[in-house]
Amino acid sequence: MEVKNLAAELNSLEYHGRGIMLGKSVDGSKAIAIYFIMGRSENSRNRVFVEDGEGIRTQAFDESKMVDPHLIIYAPVRVLGNKTIVTNGDQTDTIYELMDRQMTFEQALRTREFEDDAPNYTPRISGIIRLESGDMNFALSILKSAYGNPDSCERFTYAYSNPLPGKAKFIHTYKAAGNPLPSFEGEPKTVELPDLDIDDMTELVWNNLNIDNKVSLFVRYIDVNTGKYESRIVNKNK
After folding, report:
1. Which residues, in sequence order, are CB contacts of 227 under 8 Å at separation 6+?
2. Is the per-residue pLDDT at 81 higher than 90?
3. Rounded to an integer, what distance in angstroms lies between the CA atom of residue 60 and that of residue 79?
4. What pLDDT, on a 0 to 100 scale, did the predictor assign at position 15?
């Protein structure tokens, strides 16, 4: 499988939609989670990330301009014990609540489908990092309509055990521009993670997202031995 340059991959599209990137630092000591949102409409761009407990949530930047919050206000990141959940919608809560009742990541997502935003039917993308025995593993999922048909939901889960240092898997909602927007296709992409601290990584990702469409970015580094983490948030709206 081709290993892509991180900056080049982020520059490859003007509009990825939402993106999740999970992987392991070059020295193997950190689990890395990256989540970003982009927007084209005024409603979608009118958002910021804010801290919420151990996770984050989206919030309207200007409440007076919020039109329809049901697909854009949610908690993208929540923490359940040794698990960090990252998604592009309120399925974060579904995963958290059902895994807390001993269901698996995949079982939880079987209760959900793609978003109800015809004609795009935006995929629901989700990721989870588990810390275990001084190391980490992770999984990514996408729920999408079958060729734009809202009557059929396709579900794919990709699990990564003992992931390689210095690599991440990257999945995003749309594969290209279009009307309607075409859903992401194929396996998550493999990107090279440069040997950077969290501040430099945050700067690299933010600076290589399309300047007109980027909205917010979240980056977290988690120590695989202790579970301690540090996070960064960047919002275009200030």
Report:
1. 82, 131
2. yes
3. 23
4. 97
Give the H/E segment covering residue 234.
Answer: strand 229-235
Residue pLDDT, tens place only, 129-155: 999 999 999 999 999 999 999 999 999
* Residue among 73, 50, 47, 56 at smallest CA distance from 236: 47
- Say what the pTM is: 0.97
β-sheet bridge partners, residue 168? 23, 191
CATH topology of domain 3-235: Glutamine Phosphoribosylpyrophosphate, subunit 1, domain 1 (3.60.20)
How many other C-beta atoms can be found within 10 angstroms of the C-beta atom of residue 190?
16
Backbone angles phi, psi at 92, to 5 degrees: -55, -45
Cβ-based neighbours of 186, under 8 Å, separated by 6 or more: none
The residue type at 103: M
pLDDT more than 70, % of the chain? 100
Domain ranges within the chain, ordered by starting residue? 3-235
With tokens 């949102």, the residue in question is: 37
DSSP H helices in the chain: 6-11, 42-45, 91-99, 105-109, 198-207
Which burial class, exposed, middle or buried, applies to 191 when counting CB atoms under 10 A from its CB (0-12, 13-18, 19+)? buried
